[in-house]
Amino acid sequence: MLVKNPKFEISAVKPSQYPKSDLPEVVLVGKSNVGKSSFINTMINRKKLARTSSEPGKTRQINFYNIDNLFYFVDLPGYGYSKMSKKEQEQVGKFIEYYLQNRKQISLVIFLVDIRHIPTENDKLMYNYIVRAGLPCIILANKADKIAITKVENEVRNIQNILNPMKDFCTLPFSSERKIYVDDVWKNLQNYL
Ligand SMILES: Nc1nc2c(ncn2[C@@H]2O[C@H](COP(=O)(O)OP(=O)(O)O)[C@@H](O)[C@H]2O)c(=O)[nH]1
Ligand SMILES: [Mg+2]
Prior knowledge:
Layout: E1 6-12, E2 25-30, H1 36-44, E3 62-67, E4 71-75, H2 86-102, E5 106-114, H3 121-132, E6 137-142, H4 149-163, E7 171-173, H5 182-190
Parallel strand pairs: 2-4, 2-5, 5-6, 6-7
Antiparallel strand pairs: 1-3, 3-4
This protein binds guanosine-5'-diphosphate and magnesium ion (MG).
């Protein structure tokens, strides 16, 4: 898809600030630093519309990006940031869950994990939460540029076997660094809009 006019709309720190719109929302979920903001920039071909950070855990608000008035990319705060206190982590968790549970226009969750590691306990908890909430989901094995191309398929299969052995959601590789697999993800994503 060729995105023409993506716009940052709002950083919501509470539900009353979520956009008053019926547009479908495609939500990025994943641990802190896995590449959620970079994913948005890569998909829309902009360098810095979504704020990325080398200091993970900084974003504790929900950022909404209006994509050509067709849908929103929604950048959720990352979970599992080790430098956050238990209490802060719990607050972020509640904030994420409130959005996922209550926002009717969510049309797809894009769940990012790191292709180099088996999903963490937090990844499994969050993934199971998404499934139980009845939300459609695509799993992306991100940072695919970090491993040999010959290993990508195998790692993607491992991640799928751990998170989604029933294989009812598709699992795809992705890399913001090398901008590969972008078209595959667009094709898949558009089925949900
Ligand atoms: N090698 C590589 N690095 C990535 C990729 N995606 C994101 N990063 C880097 O990972 C760090 C965190 O990315 P960011 O998008 O801010 O993660 P977020 O916390 O999930 O939003 C940044 O330094 C990015 O440049 C990728 O596909 N490959
Ligand atoms: Mg981010």
